[in-house]
Amino acid sequence: MRAQILFLVMVFGKSGAESQGPVKRLLHRYQESRSPPDFRPLHDHLGNPSYHGSSYRLTHTSSPRYFAPKPAVPRNEIAQKLQEARKVIMAGNKFGLNLMRFLISENDNTIMAPVSLSIALGMLYFAAAGNTKAELSRALHYDDFGEDPNNLLTPIRFLNEAAKASKAQGVTVELGNLIFAQKNLNISKDYRALIEETFGGFVEDIDFSQTVQAVTQMNKIITSLTKGQIDNPIESVSPTTRVVLTNAVFFKGFWKKPFSVRSSFDSTFFNDGVSEVPVKMMYMRDSFLVKSLPELDADAIQLPYESDITIMLVLLPRNPNGVNRMLQNLNIAKVIEDLPTYANESVDLHIPRFSVRGSYHLKKQLYDLGIKDLFVRGKADLPQLDTEGQLVVDDVLHEAKIRVDERGTEAVAISTAAIINYSRYPSFNVRHPFVFFVIHKETGSIFFAGKILRMNSQEQAPTSGGKTQGR
């Protein structure tokens, strides 16, 4: 009998709204027994992973659980490392958009986190060998980075430090990686070090033979890690389960230009571009970076968070029924590359409050993207997780949710009638299906990608994405 891996990815975020706070306990158990890494701001220092034979290690002090303080890096080296990181990040973005294209066929609201999925699959990539690793490399677009693992390890460390540094830049982004492993499973020491020191995660021993207790224990830890945002994501495990890989991303951002609650008004949204439903529409007249995208038959606007380094990019097709076609034609690398070319214009912005949640079983979609051996008994090759070669991935679960509102800070009230009917300013009016991305502009990382097809007239918010089993 082959042992199983359950692969879980969780993402949650708040935009402009009060939340329960960042995931302060995300690595609580890890930090209780280990000194935390000496993370300084992003531009102070960068990691220096090194490769030893068939194993992966990060330069550390005499104690393998502590990070060595890194000296300051010259600015020209920072620029070079940022450029290297952007290449890997753009590969992850491309993978995420390809996966999102598979999900849009479900004809529902969609929310996912490319950075979360690519990091989680990256953990499996470094555990894999042979054709399993080759398939992951092709799907994640790692083939262009050569044989040296440092070409990937350094940018991954960079991304984790960028997330930590974001706290000082007006938003909170926390990444957490956790592996639940069967007690006494023969995980290589070097792989444990890789998870701790490059991915900032840890390995938690568990007894999967006690299935009910194992599920309860894992869900309790995950609920605690996510401050209750993700509740009981694991429904069941098999006694043959040996590993559950978990990635969690928390995002919290406040608008640089908050909407006034008193300026929000009752309006309509065209579900699927056809059916009218009542919604609460947020409004603001201000200067924003906007751009016409004729190649997509769409228009775009950047909504900055407090730092300007992180933005929500909204893409609105001109055809109310054009959102899926727009996504199919979207070149995400070009979209991010063109962000500096947007024009600063005064606009009347109308955008509904919205929240969306999606829970997806991605085994079928990942298989269709070329990641096949990972799920096939007798073919999955994950020697870093188990030298006996008895592991196979059972499923990949991805859960994400986000809420967008005014942030609660009120500005000067503006007459609604004048807003709608008599404005002399160009209008960006989000009243039909649209796409949004939450982007870290410095690195190009896409924290969230979402498609809103319909709103719920009862809740004045979108219906949540259901559990997707594949097509």
Describe the structure concisely:
The chain is built from 11 helices and 20 strands. The protein has helices spanning 28-33, 75-103, 114-125, 130-139, 150-165, 189-197, 211-225, 323-329, 332-337, 363-368, 416-421, and strands at 3-15, 49-52, 55-58, 110-112, 171-182, 202-206, 241-253, 265-271, 275-293, 298-304, 310-317, 343-352, 354-361, 391-404, 427-429, 434-440, 445-452, 455-456, 461-462, 467-468.
Q: Which ranges are low-confidence, i.e. pLDDT below 50, for 5 or more consecutive residues?
A: 17-72, 408-424, 461-471
What is the CATH top level name of the largest domain?
Answer: Alpha Beta
CATH topology of the largest domain: Antithrombin, Chain I, domain 2
Mean pLDDT equals: 73
DSSP E strands, number: 20
Give the C-alpha Rg: 22 Å
Report the helical percentage.
25-40%
CATH architecture of the largest domain: 2-Layer Sandwich
Q: What class, by secondary structure content? A: alpha+beta
The main sheet comes to: 9 strands, mixed
Strand content: 25-35%
N-to-C terminal Cα separation, in Å? Answer: 28 Å
SS element count, helices: 11
CATH superfamily heading of the largest domain: Antithrombin, subunit I, domain 2
Shape: globular
The number of distinct structural domains comes to 2
GO molecular function, one term: serine-type endopeptidase inhibitor activity
Protein name: Leukocyte elastase inhibitor
InterPro entries: Serpin_dom, Serpin_fam, Serpin_sf, Serpin_sf_1, Serpin_sf_2
GO cellular component, one term: extracellular space
